[in-house]
Amino acid sequence: MSVIEVEHLSKVYNSRKAIDDVSFNVNKGDVLGFLGPNGAGKTTTMRILTCYMPSTEGTARIAGYDVFEESLEVRKRIGYLPESPPLYPEMTVESYLGFVAKIKGTPATQCKSQIEKVMEECNIGDVRKRIVRKLSKGYKQRVGLAQALLNDPEVLILDEPTIGLDPKQIHEVRSLIKSLASTRTVILSTHILPEVSMTCNRVVIINEGKVVAMDTPEGLAAQMKGAERIALTVDGPLDAIREKIQAIDEVMSIYAAEGGPDTPPSFTVECKLGTDLRPLLASTVVSQGWGLLELRGVSMSLEDVFINLTTQEPTEADSSQQ
Amino acid sequence: MRNILAIWQREMKSYFVSPIAYVVLTIFILVSGIFFYGYLMQIIQATMMQAQYGQGSQPIDVPGIVTRALLQTMSVLLLFIVPMLTMGLFAEEKKRGTIELLLTTPVGHFQAIAGKYLASLTFLLIMLLANAITTFPLYVYGEPDLMPILSGYLGMFLFGMALLSIGLFFSTLTENQIVAVIITFGVSLALFVIEQLSGSTTGVTRNVVNYLSVLSHLEDFVKGVVDTSHVIYYVTFAFVGLFLAYRSLESMRWKS
Questions:
Q1: A14, A16, B243, B244: most buried by Cβ count inside 10 Å?
Q2: Are A67 and A183 in the same domain?
């Protein structure tokens, strides 16, 4: 059963569409990665899901409750970590968590044990008496995460949870998120791609307010791999090379990579799946008397998928969406 | 109720953890102390002059006179201080992003406003108590009529209550505390001096202007008269301020 159902969600700010007809479902126990460039509408979507602001159109339901009509029920069931952790700098970590536990309606008898639990989970027990203002960014982020975990929410909504952490902490937070996922449903937004393949089992890619892809990280990479790609660097005149290679039947497209005037031109050549063009390319280049500097097959990473889906150039977007 | 209490508690702590509470209290006590001393000296001089001219010493209510004069001065002091008590209530939450926490947990808008408003009222109460303590020596050496003094303090509390509610409202409008202070001060001041306009108006306008003035309702309290119409004025005033704050908080969700 879907814990989070988002249907045709749109949000308009002063006639600019921040998100446009976004729909997706998240099942219990899923970790959904919400991927997109800055300004794509990730935070807007999350704010609507957390009842912080209403949508212009469309509905969203969490655990069966509408975020607009039954916002109180929804707010009881979510833990939310906004982009910048919502901390009161003058409080100590412990009193801050105590305050959040109270306003989240944790029963008085359980407050203490809940706080202990989240402090242990987020590994912030050693700073419990410290004042929030004096904590490092990494600790602040973890206190923010601890706050979201209080009162055992069914659904966790995390806006860029690993931002500002050092590599070790990033690793810890990722494994924490993974361990949480067994009993909860998590949505996290990020623009760090490896994070998605490491922590999420579903990915939604959003660009300019629209969902452009939705799948598992592996499925997405496979689905996108509509063509074999070969990287090619040749010592020779750029235009002539391009023309010559374009003339080969099996080549679907060729892009010149950016480089300085002194570096030899590099290209990415795309051809049909299942064909290996490398021998043909090599002989073509050599027969022209150019120097073949590099020739290798490229596998498509999630990064390529992401860039493919979110870059402006229509030719790229079209070819990758088929 | 528990939410209101939690927010009240946090707000009180933040008053006393930040320098605001101490600065405000110190200045308030200092300035009201200076005025207290000044008024007391005036009376002493007046009575001494009376004695010199041999007019005999009629019994005068020194504590009553001084307290009344002091309360009138305090209304001006509150005009300056109240905006500082309310400026951060929502503006700071907005600036820090903690408003996002507050509005995405099961805290209702009403509870958030109530908790914060009660905290500012508590602080006002502390200020009035601190001020009452300054006048304590009067009661050691005199036997004042307590009722007019108490009604004066009640009036001052109601007056502060009204100003705090508009301060709270303006704090929801902006994330800049300075803007909140200035608007609150400006509007309070306008309502404070609007009485001056009544001289140049007649009839209904005059009545309306007089009724709107936050100051005209205070006079009776200081004289020792608790008139329900004045109580209703201040309570209504506070309700309007809080209602506007509630609406503003709601609309923030739509605008954000």
A1: B244
A2: yes
Of B6, B103, B104, the CB nearest to A99: B6
Q: How many domains does chain A have?
A: 2
Pick the range with the lowest mean pLDDT from A17-21, A152-156, B207-211.
Answer: B207-211
Rounded to the nearest angstrom, the minimum Cα separation between B28 and chain A is 24
pLDDT tens sequence across A125-136: 899 999 999 988
The interface predicted TM-score (ipTM) is 0.84
Q: Return the percentage of chain B with pLDDT > 90, whole number.
A: 37
Q: Domain check: are A115 and A237 in the same one?
A: no
Q: Do A105 and B2 touch (CB under 8 A)?
A: yes
Site from B93, B100, B252 to mutate, A interface, most A CB atoms within 10 angstroms: B100
Q: Provide the total of helices (H) and of strands (E) in chain A, helices listed first.
A: 12, 14
Strand order in the sheet with A155-159: A78-81, A155-159, A185-190, A31-35, A202-207, A210-215
Same domain, yes or no, for A204 and A232?
no
Q: Is residue A322 part of a domain?
A: no
Residue A103 and residue B18: Cβ atoms within 8 Å? Answer: no
**Domain region containing A43:** 2-216
Name the interface residues of B facing A (CB cutoff 8 Å): 2-3, 5-7, 9-10, 13-14, 17-18, 96-108, 253-254, 256
Structure tokens at A164: 């500002």
A14 touches A38 (CB < 8 A): no
